[in-house]
Amino acid sequence: YRGYYIRARAVDHCVQDFLLKTQSLPRTQILSLGAGFDSLYFRLKDMGLLHGTVVYEVDFPNVACQKATLIKRMKELSALVGDTGGEGLGAITFSGEDYKLLGVDLSELSELERALEEAGLNNEVPTLFISEVVLTYMENTRSDALIQWAAEHFPQACFLLYEQVHPEDPFGRVMQQHFSQLNSALHSLAQYPDCEAQQRRFLGKGWTECSVMDMNEFFTCCIPEDEQQRVQTLEPFDEYEEWHLKCSHYFVLAASKGMEPSWTPLLPRVTVPRHAGPVGMAGSVPAAVCARLSGIPGLRRYGHRSVLIKPNVILTTGGFGEENGQHCRMRNFHVLSKHAGYWKAVCVTQNIPDRRWGERLYHTVSCLSDTLALVVGGRTSPSSAGLGMLWLRFPKTYNASDPDDIAVELVSLQPAAEAAALRWRHSTTEMTFKGEQYLFVYGGRSALEPVLGDWYFLHAPELSCAAIAVEGPIPESRHSHSACSWEGGVLIAGGLGAAEQPLGSVFLLRELEHGLQWQTIETHPPLVPRYSHTAHVHEGKLLLVGGVWFHASSVPGITVIDLMTGLCLDYVINVEHLEWPLMLHNHSSVFLPNEEELLVIGGGGNCFSFGTHLNPEPVTLSLSSILISH
């Protein structure tokens, strides 16, 4: 519902701002282009906001006739509008004192102008034009002409536009494919692919002021904090990546001319620090599909975990994906092993006493030896997350050629450690303290708390909960961050914070003489805030892979942070040899140090209303060139 909420909220925000700024004027007009079955007029009328404002709605004749019939049929609507019997005159299909519904093709400008004149539209009255995902379906020459006509013929005018942007990144490609399949191609995207291009479009066609925001910025800057919190707690919600990607691919634009005072509905309510996007890409990383792993449906998944259980053997568990042509939570494990330079994958079924324990998303898997791994937390649904911990046991000779069943055992936890497992989107990292091995469980979220900032030290292997003193600046609560072992300590990077805002901080938890200390690692240029990425450490460098950030001009590729100097460099992933969009969120990745390669498994998700995109096959990313040059 959030995707539709933000659209309605943006339009209402701008329309009500227009009505408020012009309330002292005797008459104003709203002209809704391609209004469809929108209820804006009826909501404004019911709220008592239409003082001297006449609303004109235009759509294709068949749509306008259907809407007119609906209005006449519903007593509540016809009572609000007050039918004055003006329909039948030219293109007018319904007429009230302050509401005119016209059936006319927007792309025929002369017909539109004539119909509006017949309906009583007055060019000398301050007029707000509204276009919600309408102009983009028209040929650019026709939509440009309409934008210019509005500016030239109305001395005092405002224009509100809500449309898509960023057609060429992975989400944008899925979005475009969806509309193409509906035979509704988005024409404006090729010529106006980003917010800046749309702003130049309006300023070049007669509008003197123009501001534009993508919907992430609008939600953060223009919606009051209490309303943000209300929306965020309306229902169990865990689709942050899809929500933020959808919002980065839609914008709201407000243009005006001749308005006194000027119309500025997109002035931020609060000044939120705007993090710059990547300063510039330091180079590129080639991506290639793993030929022998194509066509294995169990590897099409997201929210899963992959771990190297010994050299050249990877275990992938959990997540949501595709099995037998159906989308479902993944119960079976997959084992990948490398022989003679090629990866091979097999599906492994396991017997778990309770079915729920196997079908988990956003859990962690920690390999404690070449025969033992620990699964911590995860969820089935956002309201069902009490999945505890599992031991996974496998033979020393384990590989994909001889996939014995993995023994799965429920972990019996001490009461003090139970809360460590009641979470998802957290991290579990191996660390040492005074020569002893611990698992550090940090952050995440739970069914009760949308974001957690606590941590647990579980002494391996019996998983008793240890109390260890920690000094230094405590990191702010986060989930969907990355965590890596480094020199006995733990590196935490990025994540999604309490206000559903990506974080750009990097922390190191390291051992001191008497305890542990949080230390901030300063990066320069500053790390672009992100979450839902994966991370690895290699020879003093922290590698961040993919994720989601709010800078839709590019998508996160590989970021390399030198842990000695703090130097932070971004690299784009070269996907020219991939025939499908590579979505690097909700994925898993395994670093293969000998080959200096990353194996990316799964990733993607539900792309708003555009369908589900799961990366169809694992991908290798060769890092040798960037690890040498860094």
UniProtKB/TrEMBL annotation:
GO terms for molecular function: tRNA methyltransferase activity. Keywords: Methyltransferase, S-adenosyl-L-methionine, Transferase, tRNA processing. It holds the Pfam family Beta-prop_TYW4. The keyword Ion transport does not apply. Pathway: tRNA modification; wybutosine-tRNA(Phe) biosynthesis. GO terms for biological process: tRNA methylation; wybutosine biosynthetic process. Coiled coil: none annotated. It catalyses: 7-[(3S)-3-amino-3-carboxypropyl]wyosine(37) in tRNA(Phe) + S-adenosyl-L-methionine = 7-[(3S)-(3-amino-3-methoxycarbonyl)propyl]wyosine(37) in tRNA(Phe) + S-adenosyl-L-homocysteine; 7-[(3S)-(3-amino-3-methoxycarbonyl)propyl]wyosine(37) in tRNA(Phe) + S-adenosyl-L-methionine + CO2 = wybutosine(37) in tRNA(Phe) + S-adenosyl-L-homocysteine + 2 H(+). The keyword tRNA processing applies. PANTHER family: TRNA WYBUTOSINE-SYNTHESIZING PROTEIN 4. Belongs to the methyltransferase superfamily. LCMT family. This is tRNA wybutosine-synthesizing protein 4. It comes from Mohoua ochrocephala. The lineage of its organism: Eukaryota, Metazoa, Chordata, Craniata, Vertebrata. The gene is Lcmt2.
